[in-house]
Amino acid sequence: MRKSVIVLALMCLVMVKGNAQTYGYDSYAELPTTDLYDTEVMNMSLSAYRDMAAKRDRLFRYYAERTVNAFHNHQWHDVISNGNHLISIVPVSLGYYMRGAAYEALGYYKEALSDYKKGKKGDCPEAAIAYNALKAKMKEMKKRKK
Fold first, then answer.
1. How do residues 84-97 score in pLDDT, each as one tens digit?
2. Domains contained in the chain, CATH given
3. First vs last Cα of the chain: how many Å apart?
4. What is the rounded distance in angstroms from the CA atom of residue 74 to the CA atom of residue 140?
5. Nearest-angstrom CA–CA distance, 9 and 44
């Protein structure tokens, strides 16, 4: 996020510093670019992006802490609720694992399997282990029903 903001700012700076743009094929017309880009507006935009990134970081840390605490206290509904917020901010694989464990504990095996699979794709070893264990458990349950 910061890298793209810096690149955008540099591109705008280069455009503001330019004196003219040339258009056309045979005939050229020079158009001033300094009037097209306002440095005050660019500074306001960069400030807004910076504030937004800081708010996103604070929210991520807040929901990550709440999700982990609820997970350790086996408060499964809170894990799911806070995990939803956490994953909506940044789809982190450990968040998928914890939410999957909560779904599994509540008996929602399909949802748990889906979250474990997403966590496994994000290189979360706990999610990979839980995915395989739940898959085997579901297979065993299916056998028992027959």
1. 999 999 999 999 99
2. 56-145 (1.25.40.10)
3. 53
4. 25
5. 11
